[in-house]
Amino acid sequence: MKLKELYKTIIDRKKNTPAGSYVASLFQKDKDRIIQKVGEEATEVVIAAKNADKNRQIEEITDLIFHLLILMAQLEINLEDIYKELDKRRNLSN
User: How far apart (Å, rounded) are the C-alpha atoms in residues 11 and 28?
Assistant: First the structure.
């Protein structure tokens, strides 16, 4: 699945809040819960990075990216905003 497709699904969950959806349940709670999840996942990435289990590292990085996309949707930041910022930074480093 591409990030763009995943982000679209997250936006849909935010708008339509289907029953039983983990993503929708995060949006129904306050923003602090989403922020907390990003923090938890970031910590788990750091711990996994210290260990030699590549599969676990991939899993934790994936969880962090997923929760960052949810936070982006909450903050109304889209992928294009991120791509533009990355392009700007790349141009500054050349």
Answer: 13
